Amino acid sequence: MATGFEMDTAFFAAWIEESARSVAAGKERLTDLDAAIGDADHGSNLDRGFTAVVRALAVKEPDTPAALLTVVGTTLIRKVGGASGPLYGTAFREMGRALGDLGDTAEVSPGELCAALEAGLAGVRRLGSAAEGDKTMVDALAPAVRALRRALEEGSEPREAAAAAAAAAREGAEATIPMRARRGRASYLGERSVGHEDPGAASTALILTALHTVAAR
Amino acid sequence: MATGFEMDTAFFAAWIEESARSVAAGKERLTDLDAAIGDADHGSNLDRGFTAVVRALAVKEPDTPAALLTVVGTTLIRKVGGASGPLYGTAFREMGRALGDLGDTAEVSPGELCAALEAGLAGVRRLGSAAEGDKTMVDALAPAVRALRRALEEGSEPREAAAAAAAAAREGAEATIPMRARRGRASYLGERSVGHEDPGAASTALILTALHTVAAR
Amino acid sequence: MVGIVLISHSGPLAAEVALLAAQLGGAGVPLAAAGGAEDGGLGTSPDLVAAAIEEVDRGDGVILIPDLGSSVLTARLFEEERVVIADVPFVEGAIAAAVSAGADSPLEAVLAAAEEARTFRKL
Amino acid sequence: MVGIVLISHSGPLAAEVALLAAQLGGAGVPLAAAGGAEDGGLGTSPDLVAAAIEEVDRGDGVILIPDLGSSVLTARLFEEERVVIADVPFVEGAIAAAVSAGADSPLEAVLAAAEEARTFRKL
Ligand SMILES: Nc1ncnc2c1ncn2[C@@H]1O[C@H](COP(=O)(O)OP(=O)(O)O)[C@@H](O)[C@H]1O
Ligand SMILES: Nc1ncnc2c1ncn2[C@@H]1O[C@H](COP(=O)(O)OP(=O)(O)O)[C@@H](O)[C@H]1O
Ligand SMILES: [Mg+2]
Ligand SMILES: [Mg+2]
Ligand SMILES: [Mg+2]
Ligand SMILES: [Mg+2]
User: Fold this and answer.
1) Residue B197's domain is classified under what CATH number?
2) pTM to 2 decimals?
3) What ipTM was reported for this prediction?
4) Please, what are the domains in chain D?
5) Count: domains in chain B
6) Keywords on this record (chains C, D) (predicted)?
7) pLDDT value, residue A1
8) Which residues of chain B fall short of a pLDDT of 50?
9) What atom in ligand 2 is closest to the CA of residue B183?
10) What is the pLDDT of residues D7-26, one digit of tens each?
11) CB-based touch A/B (3+ pairs, under 8 A)
12) Is A29's Cβ below 8 Å from some Cβ in C?
């Protein structure tokens, strides 16, 4: 995502569609992960949410990236039903708000996308009070956003930077396995939460991987 | 209840029947009292309990006062359904146990009855951890038992002693009006429990009055 | 009067606790249950929570009492100056809040009463 | 494993909390709800409590968790050396006890875990 690479509303729509596809394909795995340390609904929660998002965007595609991300966030908040709904919803809404604050343009630069993701991460942290190491989606999202920022600062190509972010998210998700949950439903399990990948971190890895997939097209 | 006055199983059966009659007649008032500071079921709870007790005694009247009181207590525990069930149930069972410990005879002296009531009161106190002044049945039962003991020590006639106990119970119940509940469901109301008579203290007054009614026959 | 909203993943759980709290708080307390997903299944619905807040809001503030997990996060979406979350035991806090609200206490007092439920002894 | 009995005036309340606690504690935890009167109405039934205790007793002790009022008094009727009352928040204590029991902790540890639920923060 070096200079010259601009992302329009269609790019964001494609990212969300790819995320929806990936969540649908990973639904069972996400639910299995949640069965181990939660209530076995993360896959169906997110799938329900992204299905509703895709439907909402089909009815009337918003005409700026900021508006699109806001619709995504609002729909996820309303439709997911689990803790991940308010969290992902806030992430996407904060991204939309950040882009809106930057001028609500029809095209977004890689640096602007990175700033928006940083705002999304901040929103998740604020809402859920989770720090890295607490075994939540923050453990995938925070390193991903950091990797993206670093790659851009080092002058990487957009698809390279997206690849780095996706890889960091996947590694972050895997790194939740030995952690003990300190936030959300899983935190009630104490020691018993150790030894399982956090479902929200796993779905964050899917969403960041979807970003790379679309950036690489 | 001076020397010479002995109470047999039939006397205790009559006391329980009179209590049942009185509770049935006072059912609505007890429930209204409970509506003010509880859940509006004390009248129907106790009526259900005493109806079951009368039925149980009709099936097979136990042949000693101790056995009879034990059946009364056990039936109240099983059938009342509210806090007053375990409490009255324990009171009657402890009375039965006390008489049993005294030899499980077919006839009980006034002094033995008084000792049994003291044991019943101790049981209620132990189970409910209520002290006098906490706005519970203890505020009627404790002064009644004290009045009975004093009357007997002063050499009163049985019916006089029973009258004193019944009067003390009624006064004790009335004295709960300005109290703030510190035990049971009503304790959750805090200040709002002030200004109402405690339903359990009111029913204790009925049961002690029934004892006087039967002793005066 | 301060309004109270009970938020749970489970519809019946929120509804039962609301019944209990209403009984102890008095019929006049504005109290609503927002339990379960929109379709009645397990989950939390921000739309149900929003409707519940509106239902109980008498202008004196609203207390949100979540059980755990998504209830807490959904509640946080609605925090404002006069809409506050009570981080309290679900059943005991709801009862204490309802009794305090029923006595027409102000928002801060209702919140404090709910928090005291933590230390209330049952035995 | 330590058994857990949830005692409430309300059948649905005990049943819902039992579901929640079983979900978090794991399917293996011996857990029973004893809510409501025998006829299903509001109230507490010592016969239901006795049956619940028998149902969850695996020889490692049983924890009784009452909500309030008659539940507490009924629970007290069953106290013995290995049948103990947990004076804890109904929902949060049940979850903590179920998780601890699910980890095969001894009676004292399960009781301590339930008591810690008092101080657990949700926010
Ligand atoms: N306070 C929190 N902060 C950050 N992430 C959280 C928090 N609580 C839960 N999560 C994330 O949400 C995921 C669970 O989502 P989901 O199963 O959809 O919701 P629920 O737990 O309500 O069933 C967890 O795996 C975790 O990543
Ligand atoms: N801990 C206690 N100690 C003594 N008496 C109590 C206690 N708790 C409740 N009571 C008595 O029980 C009465 C309420 O009985 P009832 O309405 O039948 O039960 P519930 O409160 O379960 O509905 C109260 O009025 C009070 O006298
Ligand atoms: Mg889940
Ligand atoms: Mg869930
Ligand atoms: Mg009552
Ligand atoms: Mg009752």
Assistant:
1) 1.25.40.340
2) 0.95
3) 0.94
4) 3-116 (3.40.50.510)
5) 1
6) Transferase
7) 43
8) 1-2
9) 1
10) 999 999 999 999 999 999 98
11) no
12) no
